[in-house]
Automatic annotation (TrEMBL):
Protein name: Uncharacterized protein
Highest taxon of the lineage: Bacteria
Amino acid sequence: MKEQFLILIYKSLKSQFEGIKKSSWIWVDFFENEESGFDHFKSNIESDKDFECLNDESYYQGEDLNDLAFDIACEIRGKIAGNNFLNECQQTALSMIR
C-alpha cells in the first residue's frame, strides 16, 4: 500500500472526526498523537480484509486520489462508528451489572 495514499485517507478520516470528544477512545487511539495514531490506523487498514484491494496499486491508478481517499475514509468511519456503538453497549451492560 502506498504510504502517501494512506496518509490522504488518514487525514480525510481525521477531518471527519474533528467534532468528537477529545476524550473518546476513537480520538485518543487514532488522532491525539498523529504519529502513533497513523501507525495504529495503518496497521488496522493493512490487516482489514475489507481493504485488501488497497494493496493492489492498480485499484487506484487513474483515480482522483483525494476523492477516493474521502470515499474510503467514509467507509472506515462507518466501521469505527459501529465499533464505538458496540463499545458503548458493552459499557452500559457492564455498568448495569455492577
